[in-house]
Amino acid sequence: MKINGTPYRSVWVNEKDGWSVHIFDQTRLPFALDVLQLTTPEQVAHAIKTMQVRGAPLIGAVAAYGLALALRTDSSDNALEQQAAMLAATRPTAINLRWAIERMLTHLRPLTPAERVAAAYAEAGRICDEDAAQNEAIGQHGLELLRTLAAQRGKNDKINILTHCNAGWIATVDWGTALAPIYMAHDEGLNVHVWVDETRPRNQGAALTAWELGSHGVPHTVIADNAGGHLMQHGLVDIVIVGTDRVTRNADVANKIGTYLKALAARDNGVPFWVALPSTTIDWQVADGVREIPIEERSGTEITHISGRDDNGQISRVQITPDGSTAANPAFDVTPARLVTGLITEKGCCAATPEGLLSLFPEQG
Ligand SMILES: CSC[C@H]1O[C@H](OP(=O)(O)O)[C@H](O)[C@@H]1O
């Protein structure tokens, strides 16, 4: 996507040295666009754990480059396995991380140590190119949904879309998943407006989705997470589109904490609830998401403290709870397939059912 007219991806190899890896430090957005240069697998692991880089497809792509960086130092079998395990363990919920590492291992294990570095960079590059292409296709299929909504009402009537967390281009290599159809609809001239859940506690909506949409000129309004149900009750939400970190073969959906509550409100108010995902986010080995998907527990300090820009223009962090209060911080929840209207994938849209998924991916049957 473009930032001030310049096209960017969310991860890229430094063209000056040909091997170090660049990402945006997403903990500094929306107030600073800082590029981080990663030169070691440990730096990659730290960036993923601290959410300097986040978003299911993007952490998989960056971890793939982390393995390439590791092999520059030691491309032995032991190093390959150990570094892969270290990177895969950085965050437990997004299946893309494990998928990307497994793909790299499958590609690299048969090679000699001398062949591995170049092959690792090439495979990580293919993972990035495929993600960008898949997300563009998701955008096209999701655009059809928005065109249908627009056709059902007056051409210039506003289409109000609610989204949760950030599933935009900065959460992927490019285009995003939930936001890809929105960008395309806006660029096509459809009158779209986005309700942006702030998405406590890390505020990926308020800080990242609002920044993305504002940078692209897409009308949007940031709301408290708890406001979505009220807006739906008053007919102010036409469709919910969210991203996901893992979808099971039964079409249960793991996503940022609070997604399940949004789906319940949508069902209660007859609002279509769609989930956008590349096939790399489908975990075909898992059926029951509520029971089987590991939910990341993050530090309670993400609840007890919040960061932002103060009146002096400085980024500062403040405590918002009493000393001594404990905090629990599950980072994801699972929305059962029964609450999901449908899935938007690079192969098309389908019902949130095992049959729906297999209709798009028959090879998994
Ligand atoms: C396009 S995947 C985006 C997905 O990832 C986010 O999680 P996190 O910010 O913790 O990496 C969130 O669940 C988004 O829906």
Structural features, described:
Pathway: Amino-acid biosynthesis; L-methionine biosynthesis via salvage pathway; L-methionine from S-methyl-5-thio-alpha-D-ribose 1-phosphate: step 1/6. With 365 residues, the protein is α/β, with parallel strands linked by helices. The chain folds into two domains: 2-130, translation initiation factor eif-2b, domain 1 (Four Helix Bundle (Hemerythrin (Met), subunit A), Up-down Bundle); 153-364, Rossmann fold, CATH 3.40.50.10470. It has helices spanning 41-49, 56-73, 77-88, 95-108, 113-151, 180-188, 204-216, 228-233, 259-268, 289-292, 301-304, 354-360, and strands at 2-3, 6-7, 11-13, 21-24, 35-38, 159-163, 192-197, 220-223, 239-242, 246-248, 253-256, 273-276, 282-283, 305-309, 315-319, 332-335, 342-345, 348-351. It is globular. The two termini are 35 Å apart. The ligand CSC[C@H]1O[C@H](OP(=O)(O)O)[C@H](O)[C@@H]1O binds next to helix 2 and strand 11.
What composes the largest sheet? 7 strands, mixed
Task: Please tell me the overall pLDDT.
Answer: 97
The low-confidence runs, each spanning 5 or more residues with pLDDT under 50, are none
Question: What value does the Rg take, in angstroms?
Answer: 20 Å
Helix/strand order:
EEEEEHHHHHEHEHEHEEEHEEHHEEEEEH
Instruction: Examine the coordinates and then state which fold CATH places here, giving the name of the CATH topology of the largest domain.
Output: Rossmann fold
Bound molecules: the ligand CSC[C@H]1O[C@H](OP(=O)(O)O)[C@H](O)[C@@H]1O
Instruction: Indicate how many domains the architecture comprises.
Output: 2
Query: Would you report the number of β strands?
Result: 18
The geometry reads as globular
Percentage of residues assigned to helices: 25-40%
Sheet with the most strands: spatial strand order: 8-7-6-9-12-17-18
Distance between the termini: 35 Å
CATH class label of the largest domain: Alpha Beta
| Fraction of residues in β-strands | 15-25%
Structural class: alpha/beta
InterPro entries: IF-2B-related (IPR000649), IF-M1Pi (IPR005251), IF_2B-like_C (IPR042529), Initiation_fac_2B_a/b/d (IPR011559), M1Pi_N (IPR027363), NagB/RpiA_transferase-like (IPR037171)
GO molecular function: S-methyl-5-thioribose-1-phosphate isomerase activity
Family: Belongs to the EIF-2B alpha/beta/delta subunits family. MtnA subfamily.
Pfam families: IF-2B
